[in-house]
Design brief:
single chain; 443 residues; alpha/beta; Rossmann fold; GMP Synthetase, Chain A, domain 3; four-stranded mixed β-sheet; 12 helices; 20 strands; binds adenosine monophosphate; binds zinc ion
Amino acid sequence: MEKFIPEDSSPYFNREMETLSRAEIEALQLQRLQQTVAHCMQSPFYKKRFEEIGLKPEAIQSLQDLRKIPFTTKQDLRDTYPFGMASVPLRECVRLHSSSGTTGTPTVILHTQRDLDEWANQVARNLWMVGLRPDDVFQNSSGYGMFTGGLGFQYGAERLGMLTIPAAAGNSLRQIKFMTDFGTTAVHAVPSYVTRLREVMDSVGVDPRRDTKLRVLAIGAEPHSEEQRRRIEEMMGVKAYNSFGMSEMCGPGVGFECPEQNGLHFWEDYYIVEIVDPETLEPVPDGEVGELVLTTLCREAMPLLRYRTRDLTRVLGRSCPCGRNHVRLDRMRGRSDDMMVLRGVNIFPIQIEKILMQFPELANNYLITLTTDDDNDNMLVEVELEELFTDDYQRLQALQKRIQRALKDEILLTPHVKLVPKNTLPVSDGKAVRVIDKRKVYQ
Ligand code: AMP
Ligand code: ZN
């Protein structure tokens, strides 16, 4: 386990693991997969599942054999709620995280002390990768409690040796005071919250370039476009790195951008990454979009085999100028359940965001509402204006038309567009709510 802190000059937190060649990664994965599968037989769920299909752990002799193992789904987690997937006795577990459970039964993820240690190492590795060192001051502005972005970043930043401020989400004035008083150099927050924070800074006359020591942002936990990231970098005057995580895989730390910002490195010493066609469940070639499927390789309390994340992405490459050969994945387009189907057209909120962010007249907050009017499904896109020129009707109308046309080119149907003054759309402290679906459901 990585308990040491490397020299500041090292670009790697764990040089050995981060610079493995592809052949070394695959050899390590096979060894860890075999151990994981054997360990999974302690879980009532996996034991039964393997017996049902007559699969023996010894049958896993190569990485290709992974495909003999059935997928694990969110439904499986629900069906075994709360502890039916544990691979160790409950007395060996020290932490439980549970999903928000806004739809259906919540899910539970258990951790042993070793799981938590490894998770902290994962997060520390990411933060080190983007240049953070023990001299940095790290402010974690994401929710604490069940949301893993809180404790996950807390322990990871502490493991790296940074002074870590558990600021939690919300209360922007206090966040700004912490940043200026404590000399915060790095912040983690969901992207939509960074935008909000910047607006509040403006309102109290704080300029992050002039009045703070901020130099790195970690943004993640929700889908965001490249355009949104660039805007955030521009408004805060620092680099913003995409951070991917999910509770089922531990939380933050699963994938993170390196300084090249050319995709998310997914840590293949901790996970096996597959991208499959969500319909046929067959693997898709590199470069093609499919559903991300992850197998944990180092988890003790609750290993998951071939977990269908429902996140859609694609492989960008398996080498990088940074010296890491861990697979690079494209930023997530959202979960398959975020997809809106409107008049037979499949649309992701991120497609809309990408277009809106191309208009300098527009601020970052937007809301998509789907309705049924006269038996027709319609989309309304409300978006905040960067500056207040709501009295110039002609200018507003021309802008609205241009946005509508650009959206039509992207999503192939024409939404209604409503331009609203800045700070009038709802904001959330946690993940942003981008879509409200008020459509009638026909049986
Ligand atoms: P949770 O388990 O509640 O933390 O939610 C995990 C989900 O959040 C993932 O499966 C993704 O859908 C989403 N997510 C997390 N990080 C990112 C990211 N960097 N980009 C896009 N979506 C993300
Ligand atoms: Zn890299």
